[in-house]
Amino acid sequence: MRKLRIALTKGRLEKQTVALFEQMGLDCTELHNKGRRLILPVGDYEAVLAKAADVVTYVEHGVCDIGVVGRDTIVEYGKSFYEVCDLGLGKCDFCLAGKKGASFYGGYNVKRIATKYPNVARAFFQSKGMDVNIIKIEGSVELAPLLDLSDAIVDIVETGTTLRENGLEVYEKIMPISARVIVNTASMKLRRDEIDAFVEKIGKASQEAKV
Amino acid sequence: MKTYAKLTPEGTRDLLFEESDALRTVERQLADLFKSRGYRKIITPTVEFFDVFNRESAGTLPESLYTMTDAYGRLLVLRPDSTLPIARVAATRLRGVQLPLRLYYNQNVFARRPKLAGYSDETTQSGIELLGAGGLRADLEALTLAARVMEQCGTPDYKLEIGHAGYFQSLCEALDTSPETVSEIYACVESKNFVALDTVLDALGDTPATRAIRELPRMFGDARVLEKAAQALQMQDGETHAALSYLADVYTRLEKAGLSEHVTIDLSLVHRTNYYTGLMFRGYISGSGETVLSGGRYDQLLAEFGEDLPAVGFGVQTDLLARAKLRRGEAASPLSPTALVFGEDGFETDALDLQARLLNEGVLCENSLAQTQETAVEYARQCGIPTVYILDETGVQEVRV
User: Tell me: the pLDDT tens digits for B203-214?
Assistant: First the structure.
């Protein structure tokens, strides 16, 4: 049987996850000297490096058994898999934000919302029974209200520095976000013991990291 | 005008040679399994009235249906499922037949799935429906048949997971909340989104039922899960306990049938198609991230079509099984002809006669369409066909290539 395959989100989350792996006693030398390789052995596992949105795709299709990915990606892409553990890494919030002092809910015009997360934005305003126009933006969403493209933005906010420096403020917090461990449904049934062991170890490591 | 004449629509595909052979092999194996146990084949129309599927219990999402209208403007759909059409037939044309009614099907179903995600909108399903029989005996027949399916067409390490619709349903009833909230909870549990589930439950306060629902994510594994659930359940509700003890009963019998290493229990098993009323089960094989088999008991569905009959059944994703087989390199290699017949001018039909005789003797034989002997022999050489039979006025001449 093949090794358990774990998809890691590239970038900031990657470093934090590797640190957790080391705390679990896994040999991460290959991950540190990865060069341009995308599939790397880590202890008894096989790690795959991918963009966040691809991590959920790989796990949903079962080509990776386990994934470490931000809750923002999970909510936005809404796929089907087990979400088994909150690692408490990369904590931030989904927020509704806009120009400081502007009254977002005032007036009868249909509001325009710029976001990288159209599904999150749609669900949020649907739950409020509010009709909005959503514009998908790929880069710095903060620009949209500054350039008067939109009335507000829905985005992840960590410290709020970027918002403040650009004269924006948080109107409302939508939901808290952090990194999660996800597991493919079929893998969970077929390789339960191995997966449980991994999840328990990484859960413990993340608890220790918090202390 | 731009045309799409050279493309197939998104979510559909052509199946060629190995792929279609592998699919047919799986379908034949399943048909043999079902037929030998007294199940008879049923074929329902590809296009049905929307009303067949437009029911609370079907759980079909409107955005997932392929719809069109007939000449009178009535709404039609490409069938997203075979169980509902079969329930319709059973409650109408098969009314009053000797029960139990054992039916099997092998047909395509259609659903619009998320785009650009690697899914097919048109998939092939085989399955059985055992109608007019309630209770343990029928459930065990369906379950062990499902196990045979997985054994023959799946991988040796397959898992068959069982759950009970009554467990989750009675917990939801005990919540005593709005139908909207319940369906939200359903959706969360089905997509295993347990963090969102906690958020919904937080709003409902702390009751034995919310506590039990919160525990659902951890409620899967072997028979110990059932004891754990029964102990943890601080409710006197008979139905939840009845569901648990029924599952324990089923599990013991499957254990006796030597299936214990394959059978697991999952109390969080819920299904968007919420016509299930009792036992539910799903099958998994290694090499496929999706569920390959899914079924359960639906005792109230036929009543919706006017005939109150209990029923149990399951469907198998034959395309997933075939693909997994191909990937494992298990698919049988296609048979290639071992002889070629060629008739000179005026002997074309004699060549076809000889082909028929050879085929009768079990020799896989192809008719040559070449114009001359030489090109026929050359063709045989290229295709690796060892023998060529040449027919002319002198009779039959055998050429070894």
Answer: 888 888 888 888
ipTM of the complex: 0.78
A80 near B CB under 8 A? yes
Q: B87 and B198, same structural domain? A: no
pLDDT band (50, 70, 90) for residue A179: very high
Reduced to 3 states, what is the DSSP secondary structure of residue A182? strand
CATH number belonging to domain A92-176? 3.40.190.10
B319 with B237, same domain? no
CB contact under 8 A, A186 and B288: yes
Residues of A in contact with B64 (CB under 8 A): none
Chain A residues whose CB is inside 8 A of the B188 CB are: none
Contact A65, A82 (CB under 8 A): no
Q: What is the pLDDT of residues A54-67, one digit of tens each?
A: 999 999 999 999 99
Does A5-90+178-210 match A92-176 in CATH topology? yes
> Three-state SS for B27?
helix
B212 and B177 in a single domain? The answer is yes
Q: Return the number of CB contacts < 8 Å for A and B.
A: 57
What's the mean pLDDT in B220-236?
82
Position B180 in a domain? yes
Instruction: Find the chain B residues whose C-beta atoms sit closer than 8 A to any C-beta of A.
Output: 117-118, 157, 159, 161, 190-195, 217, 220-221, 264, 266, 284-286, 288-291
**Mind spelling out the 3-state secondary structure of A67-108?**
EEEEHHHHHHHCCCCEEEEECCCCCEEEEEEEECCCCCCCCC
Nearest to A189 among B194, B217, B284 (CB): B284
Name residue B101's beta-bridge partners: B131
**Which of A57, A69, A76, A190 to mutate: most B Cβ within 10 Å?**
A190
Whether B238 is in a domain gets the answer yes
CATH superfamily placement of domain A5-90+178-210:
Periplasmic binding protein-like II (3.40.190.10)
Residue B316's pLDDT is: 97
**Alpha helices in B313-364, H assignment, sequence order:** 318-327, 348-360
Domain match, B144 and B171 both = no
| Residue extents of the structural domains in chain A | 5-90+178-210, 92-176
CATH no. for residue B381? 3.40.50.800
pLDDT tens digits, A109-132: 899 999 999 999 999 999 898 999
**Partner-chain contact B191 A78, CB within 8 Å:** yes
Domain, as residue range, for B378? 339-400
* Mean of per-residue pLDDT scores for chain A: 91
Specify whether B47 is located in the same domain as B135.
yes
Nearest-CA distance B116 → chain A (Å): 10
Whose tokens are 């000797």? That residue is: B98
* Burial of B82: CB neighbours in 10 Å, binned 0-12, 13-18, 19+: buried
The string of pLDDT tens digits covering residues B31-73 is 999 999 999 999 999 999 999 999 887 777 788 999 999 999 9
- Mean pLDDT for A176-181 is 92
Phi/psi of residue B390, nearest 5 degrees: -110, 130
Q: Which of A1, A83, A190 sits opposite B192 (nearest CB)?
A: A83
